[in-house]
Input
Amino acid sequence: MTHSADSIDGDLVADGGPDTLEPLAQAAARRRDDITIIAAQIGLLLVLLAAWQAIAEFGVVPEIFISKPTSILVSLWNNVVFGRMLLDLVVTVYETLVGFFISSAVGMVVGVILYQAPRVNLVVRPFLTGLNNLPRLALAPLFVLWFGLDTSSRVALVFSVVFFIIVFNTYAGLQNAIRDHLLLARTLGASRFQLFVKFILPSAVPTIFAGLQLGLTYSFLTAVVGEMLSGAVGLGAQLQITLATYRTADFFAALLLLAIVATVLSGLMRLAERRLLRWRQFEQGGVASPT
Output
């Protein structure tokens, strides 16, 4: 019995031939690469920690200056389980998230207004630029005078930093819509609201998310620095106290906890971005629709 070339190719595809095996091989290769990269990262981390431990153990650098990884881990455990580090962490995260959400909401609204009202943008843009260039951290004592020593002053400080990031990223993102698409939509009778919702806003979402990611990072940093400058509670305040009393292990333990929490918050933001922008991944990959 003979088979035509077309039937042979069809059998290969149906039975998992080259067209099916190639994506599987690529996926397996990617998994191997991911495992290799993770293993290399873990190995590098272990080498750095071992070098740090050795430098402190053999007195190359006095331990009071750099502590050592084992002491830092013990301090982290003791402060989290038996100390008040978790309470301080709650305060810092509260200031970060409240300041971030308020500044993000207000910043996006202002960015949309500036885009929709060009004359308003021309009037207020120099003032926004001038305020953005102010050293906001130097204004921390003024915020303490206005809002007191509690968390409100740090929330205000976070707002003063992150608001401008969100405004400018939102405004820039709204200008990313493809002009030909807008002209075609107008020709087909789309209203101004439909243009904004279906073309302008979706084009702006990636840039807005980039601003939100940056804003979240700066929210956390600003809250910590604000606590170091004028706070009695929070991880920033504990950093200042432990450094002033030469408790280096406690200082690095608080710093490690800050790094872990900041990484988790950043990862959650990236996860939300991937889920909300799945359509963009399919668009860039040339897939008609997500199935």
In short: Residues 4-16, 286-291 have pLDDT under 50 and may be disordered. Residues 18-57 form the longest helix (40 residues).
